[in-house]
Structure formats: C-alpha cells, structure tokens
Amino acid sequence: METFFSLLERRVDDCSSLLCVGLDPHVDDLQSPTADAAREHCLRLVKAAAPYAAAFKPNTAFFERFGPQGWTALKQVIDAIRQESQRLGSHVPVILDAKRGDIASTAEAYAASAFDSLGADAITLSPYLGRDSIEPFIQDPEHGAFLLCKTSNAGAQDLQDLKVERPGKQPVPLYLHVAEMARGWNVRGNVGLVVGATYPATLAEVRAAAPELWFLVPGVGVQGGDLDAALQAGLRQDGMGVLINVARGIARALDPGSAAASLRDHMLGIRRAMQK
Amino acid sequence: METFFSLLERRVDDCSSLLCVGLDPHVDDLQSPTADAAREHCLRLVKAAAPYAAAFKPNTAFFERFGPQGWTALKQVIDAIRQESQRLGSHVPVILDAKRGDIASTAEAYAASAFDSLGADAITLSPYLGRDSIEPFIQDPEHGAFLLCKTSNAGAQDLQDLKVERPGKQPVPLYLHVAEMARGWNVRGNVGLVVGATYPATLAEVRAAAPELWFLVPGVGVQGGDLDAALQAGLRQDGMGVLINVARGIARALDPGSAAASLRDHMLGIRRAMQK
Predict the structure, then answer these.
(1) Which chain A residues are Cβ-neighbours of B109 within 8 angstroms?
(2) CA B81, CA A6: separation in Å to the nearest integer?
(3) Distance CA A128, CA B193 (A)
(4) Are strands B215-217 and B163-165 parallel, antiparallel or unpaired?
(5) Least CA distance to B164: which residue of chain A?
(6) Domains of chain B: total
(7) Residues 166-185 of A with CB under 8 A from B
(8) CB burial class (10 A; 0-12, 13-18, 19+) of residue A16?
(9) Which strand (E) or helix (H) includes residue A268?
(10) Contacts of A170 (CB under 8 A, 6+ apart)
(11) Residue B184: its chain A contacts at CB < 8 A?
(12) Are B151 and A103 a contacting pair at CB < 8 A?
C-alpha cells in the first residue's frame, strides 16, 4: 500500500536528500510587502532547490497575512512544486506548515482546504485536541500529518516539558506522551512528529519512544540547532526518519541552489558515516 | 485603559446578551458548495442576529476550504459585522476562531493576518507552544486571545485531562494548568479561555482556577451541553465572564433572529435569577 511516508521515502532515495526546504516569505525578506513578492520569492527558491529537496514546507502564516492574494500565491507556489516534480520525474511532497487543530466537521474542512483545495501532501497539526482532531487528516494513507511534539522555542517548557501521570506507567514529559500516542495512531503509515533540533538529547529520547516514526526537524541554523547532532540523535537505523527543515539558511544564501546542494551533501556524508 | 474585554463588556451591557453567534458555513448548510453561498449564509445570520449578539465568531476552516474566494468571503463577513455595529451604534466584537499556534515571527504574521488584514478583534489560539507563541497576539490590549483550555470533544482526554506535575504544587489536569498560566499572562486584560459546555463541573473547576477570566463556551445544543448549567457553573459574580457560542441552533432555525433573541432572553433570565 502506498502511504505518505512510502512516497516520501521514494523521494529521499531519488534525490539522496533529507532536506526539507522551508518556504517562509517573511516580509523582511521580500522586495515589497505584497503577495506577488511572496510568490516570486518562493518560486525562485522552488526552482533553485527542487533537485536537492526531499520536501518543501510552505508556512501558511506568511501567505495568510496577504489575504486572498496571499492564498492565491500559496496555491501557485504549490502548483510550481508540482511542475518541478514533473520536470524531475520524481514527486516532491509538499508539507503545509499550518499547525491546525480543531474538531469534527471543522477538522474535515481544514483537511479539505489543505489536501483538496491547495493540493498539499501533508500538514502539521497541534495535538492539543486529541485523536478525533487528527483523524480527518489521516483517513487517506497518501496524506500525512506531522504532530507538534517538542518545539524549539522557549515556551515549549510551559506545556510540553511538564511530566504527566498515566495509570500504570511512569510519568513522562508531555512531549513523550504525544510521541507514544502518535505511534499508536500511525496505523496507516502517515503520522509523523515535529521535533525541534535545539536539544539533541531530546531528539534521541523521542526517537526511543517512537522508533519507526518520521520526524520533521526545524530549528537548525537560525534557531541554534546543530545539524550533525540532530541527525545522529534522530536518524533511524535505516538512515531514514529525519527531515531537516532549513528556511533562512537557503532563502538568504547568495546562491540558494548551492546552499541546498551543500546541505544535501553534508547530510549524505553523515548518513553514510553512521551506516558504516 | 480600553482592553478587548472592556470593549466586550460594553457590548454585553448594550445588548444585554452573553450570546456569541458562531458563523460556521458548513457545506451541508449551503445552497451550493461555493464561497459565495458561504458568504450569503453568514450575511443573513449577521443581519438577523446582530441586535442580540455580544460577539460573532466566524470559524476560518469553513472559509479556507474555498481558497482565495473563501478568504474574500470571510473578510466581507467581518466587514458586514462592522457595518451592523455602526448601524446599532455599538461595537460588536469579532472573534476569529482560528486556533492558530506558532512561534516568533510566524505568530506575528498570524496576528497581522487576523487583526490587520481581516480586522478581527480577537482570536482563538492553541496553548501547546507556550507563552511566546501567545505574546504577539496580546501586545495590543484592544486585541484579545482565547486559549484552548478544555474542549468538548472526546479527544480532550488524550492531553487535556492528563494530570501534570509541577514543582511545589499539587498535580492538576493539564487544562487547569493552562487556566492558571492564562491567568498569569493576562496582564493587559485581553486573555480568555475556551472551555466546553459539556461538563458543568469542569467549567466550575476552571472558574475557580481563573476567577476573573472570560470564557468562550462552545458545545451548547448540538454537542449536548446544557445552557443553564453552563451559565450557573461559569458566570462570574458580576454576571459576566461567559460567552455562550451557538452556531447551528441559530443557523438552522426557521427564523435566526428570533432564535438569537430567545437565547439572549433565556440567558438574561438566568443571570438575573443568579444575581438576586
């Protein structure tokens, strides 16, 4: 059976890359504060980085702020990724970084928005509302969901780090409970986790709690996470299981294509060294 | 100092109402599955219910699913609420039910989207990423944020009901910890909570943990919550502090205006009885 993660793994093999290219058109990085400039900014990155990208991750916030025009730009960026996929002869998945979370028919409407209207392959979700808020996004095995587990910001300690009591089990930090739950919900091979790169020891801990899940790992570079340590702590034994998200490190490079290629090659070296 | 909740309380006084009218244009309720039909559905409700509405709460999901046209419709619905406010001579706040949650500059972009681009007064947010994910939304006292605390769905037990350990304190369910945190973050008078109506005892418990905060209470009617019990459990001693959200109970009524008026009057009766 084809699943979101079997599609992703095929792409990882095709391009020998674990790089997820974040598309975050910050107003500060644009030539003008407009949806057109956001689209052009992203299209340039898509074109330059596609050969080295295991996935692209546009963040809805930076498009929404431009209203309907921003929403149109987001759709155009996703369409451009589809065109690059065709050109490359290899499907590059689109992970919509939307961090949605709502119940019942509302979650269904968000799923329709992400997968049907925008044409994304996967989405990031908040786990706070529990399983029934996730289900509408993972009914189709070819669509995936990455649940926020442990984030790289200071506020992560406010909820995620709290130890939770569970009957008949040892207390664990909430983020590990989320990892265990996500593992249980992954019956169709399409549930992953968002785990920040800031603390490699935490990544290793989540890996131990969810040995087979894919992690989307932001926070390398600007947020201070160390790439090598993140891969060493997070990779599965098969050299898969970690998507390293880089946004500004590519967007602000003089040559985004070269920056993406270097990141791909560097990660490949680490993977090979680990598998020896 | 004017704050979101002082604005809301003025509106509650003006219309003697604690009713929040949910604007959820479910595809099933529309004449056709289009953004135009969603807009017309909502405009009819806004016009009929405005005199009895302490606030309106459009849910972004049902607009997003129609792409850019949906986003245009959402803006038009919010503009129509502004026009009704002018006609009534009383500002009816708009709470954007978006349940967003992201970090740093991304949260700032979502705040710009909700408050600057769409013109909403307040927003619902997920607390999972902690304080720094909330801050960009509450910098301006006249803009408010309702944090998800205890929701009315079955999945609420997966995270929200877990007991969390805190140094030097008794373990409490996560939702009570969120209530206590929100209370601490409410330094500008613009932080509230989303607490489902399903379990009045839980509402009373959250009220005890956060005596002065405003609660946005969904789940009355379709989701089985009891209106009288919710008000009795949630109202502050001043007869304020609870916004009862009703969506389908108004949208599916033969006469939405009468349905809203009846709800307003019924709640007013309960408030008066409690204050005797």
Answers:
(1) 26-27, 61-62, 64-65
(2) 47
(3) 14
(4) unpaired
(5) A164
(6) 1
(7) 166, 171, 174, 177-178, 181
(8) middle
(9) helix A256-275
(10) none
(11) none
(12) yes
pLDDT digits (tens, 9 = 90+) for B262-273: 999 999 999 999
CB contact under 8 A, B117 and A72: no
Interchain CB contact of B159 with A (< 8 Å): yes
| pLDDT tens readout for residues B13-69 | 999 999 999 999 999 999 999 999 999 999 999 999 999 999 999 999 999 999 999
CA angle A56/A60/A65 to nearest 5° reads: 140
A74 membership: H or E segment, kind and range = helix A67-88
pLDDT score of B223 = 56
The CATH number linked to B164 is: 3.20.20.70
* Structure confidence by residue, pLDDT tens digits, A79-89: 999 999 999 99
Closest residue in A to B62 (Cα–Cα) = A109
Domain coverage including residue A104: 4-274
pLDDT bucket at B221, cuts 50 / 70 / 90: confident
Cα B96 to Cα A223: distance, rounded to the nearest angstrom: 30
**Which B residues, 128 through 147, put their C-beta within 8 Å of a C-beta on chain A?**
128-134
Q: Which two tokens stand for residue A146?
A: 């990455």
Contacts with A104 from chain B: Cβ below 8 Å: 153
